[in-house]
């Protein structure tokens, strides 16, 4: 993997070193924490300015007034682009780079120096509440999309904070859980996307995750923050915490953590000063962290353009282009594109109030939110709208359905807008199932019963089960399409744009088919990643499990033929060359996917893995040559016993495919790699059986040591890492929660979108918060002594 972005922090090092020499110990410690919720500190007397950081990732959530990290208080209006779950389906790095440039421009106008994103965690389970903010189940695609976005943003002189580093694949107990992962899966699946983006796009900063990895919090994980990130990958930027992720501040500095966000009061800065004074922290280690912070602040100062103004109209247009390139046409029984003179029924509240982004810290206040009804009106389409369900009620409402049926009966075709409401998936908690609300399904079924020309427009942030699929004659997946998703969808429905999005995650037939099902979300202490490297299609293909829609799948209004796949060695690389032809009657784009497999591998491996892709635009009848370079890593696996990537000597198959289950051409190549090693491999990983059930003893062999306890022994004292959910049954705990709820209610009182769903969401989010987060929740007014006092009374009460 080549380092392509040379604009690293190193260029500020000389100046930073001079400034460092002038700083007192207190100033140094102080510089390593924020000054408030969204700003770092500066060193005024030395002319080092503070910098503002802001969420992210698919738009700007700059809070000019009251601050929070839960998406509660208002932020300045900004363009809301589609979320990562959506944009990943474009498989279009050039487009993501342009989206990044636009995000960078919005940061410039708002004087924001670092955008908190992209989110690069892997979709291990469809249930993860934050999947909408992540790209894919595949690390190669994740890394490529993240790099492109980062390069775009940073090209404007604005930094990024790739997050959440690492292995943060669930919201349940996200601030305390230990992700128990074997080294090979960690490297091949959970770190690989971060690695690609660090090497290809040098993000200014990285945000460490809340969770622990194999028993150590990311915020103080030296192997992760120094060993892997800096020494192996060459990361030169600064590491900041996720909001409130610090557990032991001094240990964090020692491990390679630079900036604590947000400001949590004076205790942690003081702890650093004391540790240096009493010899528990080497001042040179502190200096290294401070140096990185000064470099960041100098880069931020350099990048500022206070008079810059972005073109909001252009950004809206781009948001539409991104959404249109990312929609995935999943089913089309001669139904789409629609003729513009047909009489339509448009059903479902989402047609008026779309779900277009996710809930939580990434929630943007959109500049210009579209909805399908308005878009159709503007285009003079003849349609009648009926809401069909209400967003506040999951149960079918007879009156609403009746009205919808009468509208559907009169129409030539019906567009049914259904999906997941905010209360179903959000940052802060995971889903319990993969179903749509009953009210949405009832609407579709009743509409399809009276009009078979039924098109489903699906709004959701992650895969859903579709027992209702046969009721849809066509199905267009919009995911969360951002502020211009409605006009993008309309363009596709009427054939102005030919759909070309491809799924960046598999859609299993049912939740139980997912390889993490038996081990998600784990116990209250750990979650075991027993499926190891078999995530998403890596599992479904190996265990030959039927899926509803495979990874990489998507339909077009035209057809493509693949021909003449050849492989040639070019130095370090293998070049895959092929021809792709548009064999239909309309222009379109094909996503050519390249998967690699090894024949007779001595270690267990997936059947195939994505290692390259290209988007090819073709007019009817046009044919183009496509070349995709595969580097050494494309053929390598992570050999734990060697602590290195290894290409085994032997024969490999390279496939050109239209999805992980639609292999069009294959070619073989022999590589001179290493001789096969002899590694102990449990049989259960060599030939997979569905449903996947890996015994603890087999996983322990991969893990290489004894598995830690998954649940807390009952009766053990609570700690600062116990969650509010856990202490809810104690009197002190429940009083505390009540007080916090009141505080939240007063905050949400001011929110436009505040509703029942939002309240439910906050309640669940709060249950996942550890006691130590009280300092952040109180915005630094509650110190560690007070929190310890609360903890002591809870423990006294429960003993
Ligand atoms: C989220 C981060 C976010 C931060 C600031 C945290 O709760 O996990 O993704 O950047 O808040 O809002």
Summarize this entry quickly.
The chain is of the alpha/beta class and 799 residues long. The protein contains 24 helices and 26 strands. A 6-stranded mixed sheet has the order 9-14-13-12-10-11, sandwiched between helices.
Q: Could you give the topology of this structure?
A:
Elements: H1 13-21, H2 25-31, E1 53-55, H3 84-87, H4 93-109, E2 114-116, H5 139-154, E3 159-165, E4 178-180, H6 183-190, H7 192-201, E5 205-208, E6 212-213, E7 216-217, H8 222-232, E8 238-241, H9 249-255, H10 267-277, H11 283-303, H12 312-326, E9 328-332, E10 344-347, H13 372-378, E11 383-386, H14 398-409, E12 413-419, H15 438-450, E13 454-459, E14 474-477, H16 485-493, E15 507-508, E16 526-528, H17 537-542, E17 547-549, E18 560-570, E19 573-582, E20 588-598, E21 609-618, E22 623-630, E23 637-639, E24 644-646, E25 650-659, E26 662-671, H18 683-686, H19 696-703, H20 724-727, H21 731-748, H22 756-767, H23 774-777, H24 784-798
Parallel strand pairs: 1-2, 2-3, 3-5, 4-6, 4-16, 5-8, 10-11, 10-12, 12-13, 13-14
Antiparallel strand pairs: 6-7, 9-14, 15-17, 18-19, 19-22, 20-21, 20-25, 23-24, 25-26
Helix pairs in contact: 1-11, 2-10, 4-5, 4-12, 5-7, 12-16, 14-15, 21-22
This protein binds beta-D-glucopyranose.
Residues 55-56, 69, 116, 163, 242-243, 361 line the site of beta-D-glucopyranose.
GO molecular function: beta-glucosidase activity
Keywords: Coiled coil, Hydrolase
Protein name: Glycosyl hydrolase
What does this entry look like structurally?
By secondary structure, the protein is of the alpha/beta class. Helices cover about 30% and strands about 20% of the residues. It is built from 24 helices and 26 strands. The strands form seven sheets. Strands 9-14-13-12-10-11 form a six-stranded mixed β-sheet, with helices on both faces. α4 (about 95-110) runs parallel beside α5, α4 runs antiparallel to α12 (about 310-325) and α14 (about 400-410) packs parallel to α15. The protein is globular. Residues about 1-5 and about 750-755 have low confidence and may be disordered. The chain binds beta-D-glucopyranose (BGC). Beta-D-glucopyranose binds near residues 163 and 243. InterPro entries: Cellulose_deg_GH3, Fn3-like, GH, Glyco_hydro_3_C, Glyco_hydro_3_C_sf, Glyco_hydro_3_N, Glyco_hydro_3_N_sf, Ig-like_fold. Keywords: Coiled coil, Hydrolase. This is Glycosyl hydrolase.
């Amino acid at each position: 993997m080549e380092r392509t972005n040379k604009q690293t922090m190193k260029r500020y090092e000389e100046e930073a070193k001079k400034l460092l020499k002038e700083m007192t110990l207190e100033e140094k410690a102080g510089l390593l924490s924020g000054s408030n919720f969204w700003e770092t500190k500066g060193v005024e007397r030395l002319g080092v300015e503070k910098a503002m950081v802001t969420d992210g990732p698919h738009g700007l959530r700059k809070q000019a007034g009251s601050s929070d990290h839960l998406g509660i208080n208002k932020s300045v209006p900004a363009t809301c682009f589609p979320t990562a779950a959506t944009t990943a389906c474009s498989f279009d790095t050039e487009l993501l780079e342009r989206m990044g440039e636009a995000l960078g421009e919005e940061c410039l106008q708002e004087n924001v120096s670092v955008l908190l994103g992209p989110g690069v965690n892997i979709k291990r389970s469809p249930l993860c509440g934050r999947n909408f903010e992540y790209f894919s189940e595949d690390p190669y695609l994740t890394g490529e999309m993240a790099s492109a976005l980062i390069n775009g943003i940073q090209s404007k002189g604005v930094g990024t904070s790739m997050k959440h580093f690492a292995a943060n694949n669930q919201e349940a107990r996200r601030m305390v859980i230990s992700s128990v992962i074997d080294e090979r899966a960690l490297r091949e699946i959970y770190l690989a996307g971060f690695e690609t983006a660090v090497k290809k796009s040098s993000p200014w900063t990285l945000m460490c995750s809340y969770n622990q990895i194999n028993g150590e919090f990311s915020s103080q994980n030296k192997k992760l923050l120094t060993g892997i990130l800096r020494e192996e990958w060459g990361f030169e930027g600064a590491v900041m915490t996720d909001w409130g992720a610090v557990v032991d501040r001094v240990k964090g500095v020692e491990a390679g953590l630079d900036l604590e966000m947000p400001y949590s009061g004076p205790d942690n800065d003081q702890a650093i000063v004391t540790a240096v004074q009493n010899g528990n922290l080497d001042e040179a280690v502190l200096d290294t962290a401070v140096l990185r912070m000064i470099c960041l602040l100098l880069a931020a100062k350099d990048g500022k353009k206070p008079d810059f103004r972005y073109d909001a109209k252009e950004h809206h247009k781009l948001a539409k282009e991104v959404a249109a390139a990312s929609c995935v046409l999943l089913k089309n029984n001669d139904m789409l594109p629609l003729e513009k003179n047909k009489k339509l029924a448009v059903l479902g509240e989402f047609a008026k109030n779309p779900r277009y982004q996710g809930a939580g810290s990434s929630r943007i206040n959109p500049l210009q939110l579209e909805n399908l009804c308005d878009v159709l009106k503007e285009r003079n389409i003849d349609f009648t709208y009926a809401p069909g369900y209400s967003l506040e009620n999951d149960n079918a409402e007879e009156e609403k359905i009746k009205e919808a049926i009468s509208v559907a009966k009169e129409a030539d075709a019906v567009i049914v807008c259904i999906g997941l409401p905010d209360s179903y998936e959000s940052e802060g908690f995971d889903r319990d199932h993969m179903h749509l609300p009953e009210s949405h399904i009832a609407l579709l079924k009743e509409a399809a019963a009276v009009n078979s020309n039924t098109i489903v427009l699906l709004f959701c942030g992650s895969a859903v089960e579709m027992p209702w699929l046969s009721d849809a004659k066509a199905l267009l997946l919009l995911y969360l399409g951002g502020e211009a998703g409605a006009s993008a969808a309309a363009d596709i429905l009427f054939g102005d744009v030919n759909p070309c999005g491809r799924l960046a995650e598999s859609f299993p037939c049912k939740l139980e088919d997912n390889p993490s099902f038996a081990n998600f979300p784990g116990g209250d202490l750990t979650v075991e990643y027993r499926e190891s490297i078999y995530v998403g299609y890596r599992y479904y293909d190996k265990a030959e499990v039927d899926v509803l829609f495979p990874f990489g799948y998507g339909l077009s209004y035209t057809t493509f033929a693949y021909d003449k796949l050849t492989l040639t060695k070019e130095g370090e690389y293998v070049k895959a060359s092929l021809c792709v032809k548009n064999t239909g009657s309309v222009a379109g784009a094909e996503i050519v996917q390249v998967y690699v497999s090894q024949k007779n591998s001595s270690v267990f491996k997936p059947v195939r893995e994505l290692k390259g892709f290209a988007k090819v635009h073709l007019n009817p009848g046009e044919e183009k040559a496509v070349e995709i370079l595969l580097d050494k890593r494309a053929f390598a696996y992570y050999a734990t016993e060697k602590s290195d990537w290894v290409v085994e000597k032997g024969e490999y198959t390279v496939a050109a495919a239209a999805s992980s289950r639609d292999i069009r051409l294959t070619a073989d190549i022999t590589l001179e790699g290493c001789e096969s090693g002899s590694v102990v491999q449990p049989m259960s990983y060599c030939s997979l059986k569905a449903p996947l059930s890996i015994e603890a003893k087999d996983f322990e062999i991969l893990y290489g040591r004894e598995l830690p306890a998954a649940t807390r022994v009952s009766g053990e004292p609570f700690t600062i890492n116990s969650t509010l959910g856990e202490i809810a049954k104690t009197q002190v705990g429940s009083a505390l929660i009540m007080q916090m709820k009141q505080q939240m209610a007063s905050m949400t009182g001011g929110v436009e979108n505040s509703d029942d769903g939002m309240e439910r969401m906050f309640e669940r989010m709060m249950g996942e918060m550890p006691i130590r987060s009280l300092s952040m929740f109180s915005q630094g007014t509650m110190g560690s002594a007070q929190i310890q006092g609360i903890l002591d009374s809870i423990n006294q009460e429960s003993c």
